[in-house]
Amino acid sequence: MEKAKYIWFNGELIPWDEANVHILTHTLHYGLGVFEGIRCYNTPKGPAVFRHQEHIERLFNSAHIVKIKVPFTREEIRRAAFETIKVNHLKECYIRPIIFYGVGAMGLNPLNNPVEVAIICWSWGAYLGEEGLKKGIRCRISSFTRHHVNIAMTKAKVCGNYVNSQLAKMEALEDGYDEALMLDVDGTVAEGSGENLFVVRRGVIKTPPVTGVLEGITRNSVLELAEDRNYPIKEEKISRDELYISDEVFLCGTAAEVTPVREVDRRTIGKGEPGPITRDLQGAFFKAARGEDPRYEKWLDYVE
């Protein structure tokens, strides 16, 4: 990780190395906290946060779902992100707001503990590698099942939920793959360890419904881009073996952006390289995020 100079913590800018928490921080022990991943891109008009309002809305929705009372308003969080970007002189960066329970009572009831809020910004390139963006990545179906809607709050981006993701990711990396793909409790494809999934088969773009997966903001962007290009789209269950015979597969997310998949479980996808629809949507996404397509200006929150 490339350090920045300052972190916004509970309303103050603190030097990076001094933004610490106590060892008895409740969320460290029990995992109940919420966070977001957001990107800021450099545009012809200067740095702009991509779909900032939607990310903040999801952050507050996550907190509401798990009964965390956020001690700041949405606008205060928005302006704090701007402040952190500016004080660190960043043109492009990843933004991580996190809301968590601090030190107080121990045990499973967190409600008597103070709520802490931090915003961290740092330079972060392609999550799955520049080579992956260009040529596609290799994935494996994980042995770990994705969350069930009545076991974990799948509409909330909860810290503890990502133990499931970490186990899947480590397993994939140790087996020589770049990323894990996870099945739901019914055995159909859910998503990657931290990304939504799309397939292209016979010219139709398909993606799993969001019943049991996070409502991805990049996913929503890709769907709108695809609709504007008149691609046929279906939100429906996808079987594991349908992945193998798809013409194209790609993952998307704030960190992963739009990353092609060239292989799943040692089975080549299509021609073993990013397909034309994936390439088209990937290019359209980056043009929109970097302020090069005025049709999607609505997605950009320029740093003031």
Highlighted features:
2 domains, D-amino Acid Aminotransferase, Chain A, domain 2, alpha+beta, 17 strands, globular, eight-stranded antiparallel β-sheet, 8 helices, D-amino Acid Aminotransferase, Chain A, domain 1, 27% helix, nine-stranded mixed β-sheet, 304 residues
Task: Please characterize this protein's 3D structure.
The two termini are 26 Å apart. 27% of the residues lie in helices and 28% in strands. By secondary structure, it is α+β, with helices and mostly antiparallel strands. It has helices at 26-30, 52-65, 74-87, 130-135, 162-174, 217-228, 240-244, 276-289, and strands at residues 6-9, 12-15, 33-35, 38-43, 46-50, 93-101, 115-122, 137-141, 179-183, 189-192, 196-201, 204-207, 233-235, 248-253, 257-264, 267-268, 300-302. The strands form 2 sheets. Strands 8, 9, 10, 11, 12, 13, 14, 15 and 16 form a 9-stranded mixed beta sheet that branches. Strands 1, 2, 3, 4, 5, 6, 7 and 17 form an 8-stranded antiparallel beta sheet that branches.
Task: Summarize it.
This protein is an alpha+beta fold and 304 residues long. It is built from 8 helices and 17 strands.
Provide the number of structural domains: 2
The Rg value, from CA coordinates, equals 19 Å
Please give the count of helices: 8
* Mean model confidence by pLDDT: 97
The total count of strands amounts to: 17
Structural class: alpha+beta
The low-confidence runs, each spanning 5 or more residues with pLDDT under 50, are none
Under CATH at level 1, the class of the largest domain stands as Alpha Beta
Name given to the CATH architecture of the largest domain: Alpha-Beta Barrel
The string of secondary-structure elements, in order, is: EEHEEEHHEEHEHEEEEHEHEEEHE
Could you say which overall geometry the principal axes of the C-alpha atoms support? globular
CATH topology of the largest domain: D-amino Acid Aminotransferase, Chain A, domain 2
Beta fraction: 25-35%
Main sheet, how many strands, which sense, barrel? 9 strands, mixed
How much helix, percentage-wise, in residues? 25-40%
CATH superfamily of the largest domain: D-amino Acid Aminotransferase, subunit A, domain 2
For the record, give the distance between the C-alpha atoms at the N and C termini, rounded to a whole number. Answer: 26 Å
